[in-house]
Amino acid sequence: MYNVKTFNAIAQEGLDEFHADYQLNQTDDADAFLIRSVDLHGYDFPKNLKAIVRCGAGFNNIPLDVATENGTAVFNTPGSNANAVKELVVAMLIIASRNLFSAAQYAAQNSGADISTRTEREKTQFNGTELTGKTLAVIGVGHVGARVATAAGALGMHVIGYDPYLSANDAWHIPTTTKRAATLEEALVNADYVSVHVPKNSETTNMISTKEIALMPKGTVLLNFARGGIVDNHAVVEALDAGHLKRYMTDFGEPEILNRKDVLVTPHIGGSTLQAEANGAVQGADTIMTFLETGNVMHSVNLPSLEVPFVGKYRLTIMHQNIPNMVGQIATLLAGADVNIESMSNAARDKVAYSIIDTNNEFDFDDVVEKLEAIDAVYRVRLLKK
Ligand SMILES: NC(=O)C1=CN([C@@H]2O[C@H](COP(=O)(O)OP(=O)(O)OC[C@H]3O[C@@H](n4cnc5c(N)ncnc54)[C@H](O)[C@@H]3O)[C@@H](O)[C@H]2O)C=CC1
Ligand SMILES: O=C(O)CCC(=O)C(=O)O
Questions:
Q1: What per-residue confidence (pLDDT) applies to 269?
Q2: Angle formed at CA 374 by CA 373 and CA 377, multiple of 5 degrees
């Protein structure tokens, strides 16, 4: 029986995925956590915790180094909510260009017998601009950014994308009409709208600050539906006050940007649609079951991908440091324990490596696992039986 602990509201569709060998929220000492935005920095991970799956894209709420030291694989569910974010961004582009919020507020407060005469006289204050023909810079052209680029192109916008780390797979999803910027500066200098879709990390924190905003033409609308802190709020406020930025639309409210007419804040609802929540929860539950039952790794953010058909009777999975002679030490130890290796696969990612070893012969399971765990630089050993 595997134990899964959930945090945040996980869609029922995902909870229903778990088969009879799983129990949910029966213990804190879980094999896996299924989470959304809960901040796990400072959380004391149980030693038994083998996997954390974030239903969604951003994993800056999980301390990866701490998880790795604990032998815990961390996953996300790429693309599960990308369409939801795209639709919200499209709404925000239109709301910003047509002054929809102030126009609706005016209409709601406007009453009296002469309402239609006054409306026709005063409505020019809400004159907008059309998106067609305008330029949108998309910063980060992954699952969300590529969809935003496609939708903006369909609205007749010129799209310029900046993403120095774009994966070959993601590149297939970008419309050919999207112009590629070699630098952030090149993306920003002619943009009427700038939309940020990068993960939050040490490189992207304050990626859009005073210098970057100054590169944008006067009157640019800035959108941040990625994470708070990627855009420097103080720089935004200064640029709005100076009339350089026209509007800031974001999913991440902080005191310094609240209660301004030129800022529209939504309460982190980019991925909050029934479809996205169901997608993420189902994908997350499947990820947990695959990893716990087969040891195969897909969509991990701290382990390399490694998928091997589970053909033998027994499988050892070993998460360890990516340093010389680990595979040699493991193979020598297994040979000494009379384990006949049917297949052995190893992959590495940055400082972490992962090995999958299949065998058909019985061996002293506890003794071998204990000895493997005693190798310096091994984070976790698991024995799986078919
Ligand atoms: N508001 C919300 O509810 C949601 C917010 N998000 C946020 O949006 C981010 C992006 O989501 P996805 O597109 O699904 O992720 P993704 O991983 O598919 O795409 C991110 C892209 O950013 C690029 N990138 C990374 N560092 C960069 C840099 N320094 N400069 C330019 N490009 C860079 C990557 O190469 C990648 O192509 C997530 O990390 C998350 O923080 C995602 C979903 C919902
Ligand atoms: O709705 C959620 O769980 C947050 C979505 C999100 O921010 C993400 O996927 O990165």
A1: 98
A2: 80
